[in-house]
């Protein structure tokens, strides 16, 4: 009995000792685990800080290289440049549309008015180098009036000297109310069937999309000198010229108030460049732009 009691006491001591060891182990392990976790977190923060510093050091170097200009790789820079060009072109288009809807005041006795410092309002896309010539005419509107005419001119588009010209007598553009004023108008007849893009530049003769009613003074003294200038420049310099003519109609008037003419030579970066407004009027004659009727002043 006595031996059995001693054995129980011994077992109790061993159980107590084992419990103390387990508690100590758990306590030390928890402390170590917490220490390791804190060390790992501290190391991660250090790594982030290091990467952050490396990034800004690299960025500063690139910014210094570009002298304050934001740094782009080739692809992003190209996209950025293209976007900026597109925005600039959109601004030019809006400016051109707003300006070319206006009937400008041209001093009496002047055949034309220089516009925008004589700088045409072509976009960068308009002036891209191209080898193939072309011409484009707006469709007639609801009142059968002509619209803007565009072209890329060169010698291959110009008619040969021996080409015969078709008759225009069957074409009657809007506002065609022909009158004779002998002694007041050269040749006596008030109106001409005037080409938006001159015949000598494209060979277009009886194209109804290219003809408007205009006075003798407008045609001979206004448009013709610029058309001849462009034709001579092409022949003498073998260049392409971006060309545009925009008629101005106010409201539902059938007779154009005038036209804007623009030209720009491509290969020599605008050695030929002009932007003018030519009023559709005749000295000594009052014009009714509503229908093209007229009378002496």
From TrEMBL:
Keyword Nuclease: yes
Any GO MF annotation of the entry: endonuclease activity
Entry keyword set: Endonuclease, Hydrolase, Nuclease
Keyword Zinc: no
Source organism superkingdom: Bacteria
All residue ranges annotated as the Type VII secretion system protein EssD-like domain in the record: 131-263
Protein name: DNA/RNA non-specific endonuclease
């Amino acid at each position: 009995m006595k031996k059995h009691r001693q054995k129980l006491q011994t077992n109790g001591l061993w159980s107590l000792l084992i419990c103390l060891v387990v508690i100590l182990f758990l306590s030390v392990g928890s402390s170590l685990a917490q220490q390791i976790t804190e060390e790992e977190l501290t190391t991660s923060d250090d790594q982030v800080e290091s990467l952050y510093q490396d990034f800004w050091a690299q960025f500063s170097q690139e910014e210094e290289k570009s002298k304050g200009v934001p740094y782009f790789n080739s692809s992003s820079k190209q996209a950025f440049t293209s976007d900026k060009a597109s925005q600039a072109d959109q601004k030019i288009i809006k400016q051109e549309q707003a300006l070319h809807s206006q009937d400008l005041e041209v001093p009496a006795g002047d055949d034309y008015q220089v516009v925008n410092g004589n700088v045409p309002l072509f976009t960068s896309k308009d002036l891209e180098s191209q080898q193939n010539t072309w011409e484009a005419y707006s469709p007639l509107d609801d009142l059968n009036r002509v619209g803007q005419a565009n072209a890329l001119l060169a010698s291959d588009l110009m008619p040969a000297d021996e080409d015969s010209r078709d008759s225009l007598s069957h074409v009657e553009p809007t506002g065609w109310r022909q009158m004779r004023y002998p002694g007041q108008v050269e040749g006596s007849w008030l109106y001409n069937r005037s080409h938006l893009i001159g015949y000598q530049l494209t060979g277009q003769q009886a194209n109804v999309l290219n003809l408007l009613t205009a006075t003798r003074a407008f045609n001979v003294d206004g448009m013709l000198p610029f058309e001849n200038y462009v034709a001579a420049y092409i022949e003498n310099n073998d260049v392409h010229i971006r060309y545009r003519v925009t008629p101005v109609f106010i409201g539902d008037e059938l007779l154009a108030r005038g036209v804007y003419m623009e030209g720009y030579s491509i290969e020599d970066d605008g050695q030929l460049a002009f932007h003018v407004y030519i009023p559709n009027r005749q000295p000594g004659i009052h014009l009714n732009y509503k229908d093209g009727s007229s009378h002496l002043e």
